[in-house]
Amino acid sequence: MNALVFLSIAVVLSGVGFFVLWLQHRSPKTMSSGIEAFQREMDALAPPGDAPPPLRRTARPERLDEEA
């Protein structure tokens, strides 16, 4: 009987710990939290503010050896 009491205490404590961890790490489900998560991803993909603008390619120069 003593072993069953010890086992039940261990199971209850594990269940409480699992529930606390689940509460802390669950993902929010509101509309604003989804928008904020999307904005964080866009900010992570954006170039830094002090980066120079990207170089733009101009049209290819015409080749001189081609006949028009």
3D structure, described in words:
This protein is mostly helical. The chain has 2 helices and no strands. It has helices at residues 2-25, 31-45. The model has no long low-confidence stretch (mean pLDDT 85).
In total, how many beta strands?
0
User: What share of residues is helical?
Assistant: 55-70%
What ranges have pLDDT less than 50 throughout 5 or more consecutive residues?
A: none
What is the H-and-E element order?
Answer: HH
**Number of H- or I-type helical stretches:** 2
Q: What is the structural class?
A: mainly alpha
Evaluate the radius of gyration.
30 Å
Short description:
This protein has 68 residues and is mainly alpha-helical. It has helices at residues 2-25, 31-45. It is rod-shaped.
Please supply descriptive tags for the structure shown above.
rod-shaped; mainly alpha
Note the topology:
Blueprint: H1 2-25, H2 31-45
